[in-house]
Specification:
By secondary structure, this protein is an alpha+beta fold. The chain has 8 helices and 13 strands. It starts with 34 loop residues before the first helix and ends with a strand.
Length: 318
Amino acid sequence: MSQYDISFKPEDLISNIVFSPRPSEVLCRACGWNSYHECCAGYLPRLRVFYTGLNSGLWHMGNDYVLWDRFNDSALRNDYITWKFLKDKGTKDIPLVEEMHHFGKPEDPHQFTIMSRAKGDRLANVWHLSTPEEKENYAQQMTAALRELRQHTSPVPSKVDGQPLWDYLFGRCPGTKMCKTIGKTTDECKMKREFPDPAPYILSHIDLNFDNIMVANGRIIAIIDWERAGYHPWWVERYTSRRMALQYEHHELFDMVWAELDATIDEDAFEATVDNKVAPVLSAWLQCDTYHTEGYDIYLRPPFYKCKPWAALLRRAM
């Protein structure tokens, strides 16, 4: 073929691509990828869906960042509020993700949060492979983090920005977003005469399961998911770490943590002081009827694609 062969047309080599009309058939409704992008763009997105939940999705943004696309719920927004509070305080022993940026107005139906990735593994995947010395090292790091967290106190239960705390202990309805808040007086927080004395109110994470602790090379590099954090009664962090664990090994870690952090209150004393007082209240709440109208807003979305007739339900409930 001559260098200046004007009779040559690209269609001779790539049939029906280069000079075809721009197609617009959507191939993926999740990201908007269409047939033109696939055939002509020469681009491979660096955004990938990593996790999905009710009205929420977590996307990887390349290797260094993740994007949360979530329903605008104040319980979820608390993650960013608490992270920023701790970052501004200049924490020493509380490992946090390096960056976090929140987008969206309070009245927007959805919110977007970009944060740097904690490049490690979840403690849930590492603990059973660790030596006794490594486990003790993790316990010492967690103890130091909680000790520093306890330095932040408040005269009343609240989030770090002063807003009411969602009640994750009792007033929680399974399958829906949070609907009950914790009162800001001692009488409200006691709930009954024999309830544990709530003071002091200390900054607590209250969701310290192994999936929220990121580790690398024997170090805890980030504690994530601060949605439930706030100034809680002194006993709540310990109570939730013992009663809401997702892994059996979880107790092995926190038995070491609380033995050092709360050395004056052993397991038997804590059970008598807290567990035995909380259990009747929790049992009474669980026997109550709950009613959430948003649970009835259910829609069947169309199949994903003609050749892949998969479909699912869309729910307004969180």
